[in-house]
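Structure tokens please, single chain.
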Amino acid sequence: MGVQHQQASIAQEEMPHRPSQTKGLNQTQSVINSLFSGALSGAVAKTAVAPLDRTKIIFQVSSARFSAKEAYKLIYRTYLKDGFFSLWRGNSATMVRVIPYASIQFCAHEQYKRLLGTHYGFQEKVLPPFPRLVAGALAGTTAAMLTYPLDMVRARMAVTPKEMYSNIVHVFMRISREEGLKTLYRGFAPSILGVMSYAGLSFFTYETLKKVHAEHSGRLQPYSYERFVFGACAGLIGQSSSYPLDVVRRRMQTAGVTGHTYSTILGTIKEIVAEEGVIRGLYKGLSMNWVKGPIAVGISFTTFDLTQILLRKLHQMRHTDQEHR
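Here you go.
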């Protein structure tokens, strides 16, 4: 009974439309909590898989054949040549991008769920399937549109030596001077198409699994490891669906340093398929993504949920303390 009571208590803390919740946690505070939780979840998740992410990008933008053995060799050679922390090269640019990206994405998702729930007459936690999918797609699109140049910079830093770009500001200045400001948005179209599929399916899968879990287990909230598994499944499905567009985006982003002239989505796809084939080209590095993707997304969703619960409990404790004074 004690465990069930505790789980019910946590569940109540997560329902933003409860009258008591509205009094204790207003809309502004809810947005702030979502922004902070999203930022933390993105930073923790991306830092955890940064070496694998950098390796994946290097293979994505080259014509070299991918295999787990070759990926290991690349990581090991990088470690021997440049040291252990070189495996995280470009992670500072990743953090500059992923913190605002994840912050905006998670916060936007909460707001889109609330708006769609109001529109359809449902509470946001139990949205029907299609609005659940739309909320995720809109959240990813919103975040991508606002942070895209940072993703471009991160991709350039990941595939170039330290001598070419010394820091994030240097990347922006050199690209603007040598290639023009519009280069910062090269690959934007495939990025938006990909993120709509990726974010839509990721959020949809995670929310659906939590809903199905609650219906079949009788527990209103999953344990932390269950959240991680749900997030891992969401990452696997979301990233697999959008992976070819991710490859196209990376090729277009790094065209200025790889010697290719990728300019359009269809043109890039045709060139990749002609030179490397469909599977070895458009799906290059996907097996590595099946390792790092689920881990990163699982960590991200779990961190967001647990941070949200912690912040709401702290806010409730402060509110209760003020009432007793």
